[in-house]
């Protein structure tokens, strides 16, 4: 997009070019400053923490697990996680999250969900990192749920994908859930053969239902079909992004066993 902006600016005269260059330079400087600060905080183990959000049994209303969501003092995850991925800081950051989440599990005693970046999952030694974290913290493997995205499961230019790593992880006794299910590109054929235990329906679907949800809408039919698919494959289904009673009633009525969302609380420190 930046290249395109420059190209267009060139066509529109020198002043515009200077403007775009200054703009790009500023964005680059911010990125480098943030990266440097993130590296320092990670080394010092300061300024980073985990926020937790409950995953709830829709029938009983009980918390069945917590999802750990990384927080940093200087930027939201949507900004600093892609930054860390671009600059090869993600493996280290991910290791910090894993250790911390497994370590804090003793304080709540619930299974903990940890998000895993595609770059971590593509590293064949990732299951060893997980085994180390479990060992070091005494977290039972069955109490760790790794949330992976469909992006991790698409073969890259060299034909590598994470399917073998997923097998190894499940060999450890750890569970694997597919995050933001339905918003990526995994084929149905692929899904049937995947070594996953559950799927999380992306919050875009929940939002698309409307408020109150309209059962006749194409979005509602799609959500019902996705649930049926998960059930047919024997996968646990979690509905994300439940913000109000209307969405809860609707998704519970459809048969979602588990849900998550602002209705029960925003992610917060333990
Ligand atoms: P995600 O794993 O799909 O996490 C759910 C996101 O939805 C969280 O955003 C959460 O705060 C938000 N959310 C929860 N309930 C609701 C709701 O009812 N309504 C709405 N509108 N939003 C809701 P957050 O914490 O900003 O995280 C964004 C993304 O960053 C996560 O999406 C995940 O992909 C990534 N992320 C967060 N922590 C980590 C981490 O430790 N490692 C990796 N690799 N990625 C992480
Ligand atoms: Mg997640
Ligand atoms: Mg999600
Ligand atoms: Mg996600």
Characterize the structure shown:
With 270 residues, this protein is of the alpha/beta class. Helix content is 49%, strand content 18%. It contains 11 helices and 9 strands. Strands 1-2-3-4-5-6-7-8 form an 8-stranded mixed barrel, surrounded by 5 helices. Helix 11 links the parallel strand 7 and strand 8. The chain is globular, with a radius of gyration of 21 Å. It starts with a helix and ends with a strand. The model has no long low-confidence stretch (mean pLDDT 90). It binds ligand C2E and magnesium ion (3 copies). One magnesium ion binds next to strand 5. This is EAL domain-containing protein.
Produce a short descriptive summary.
49% of the residues lie in helices and 18% in strands. It is an alpha/beta fold. This is EAL domain-containing protein.
SSE order, one letter for each helix or strand? HHEEHHEHHEHEHEHHEHEE
Number of helices: 11
Briefly note the structural class of the backbone: alpha/beta
Outline the biggest β-sheet.
8 strands, mixed, barrel
Rg, please?
A: 21 Å
Q: Helix share of residues?
A: 40-55%
Classify the beta-strand content into a percent band. Answer: 15-25%
Bound molecules: ligand C2E, magnesium ion
Please count the beta strands (DSSP E, at least 2 residues each). 9
Strand arrangement, largest sheet? 1-2-3-4-5-6-7-8
Task: Note poorly predicted spans.
Answer: none
Mean pLDDT: 90
The geometry reads as globular
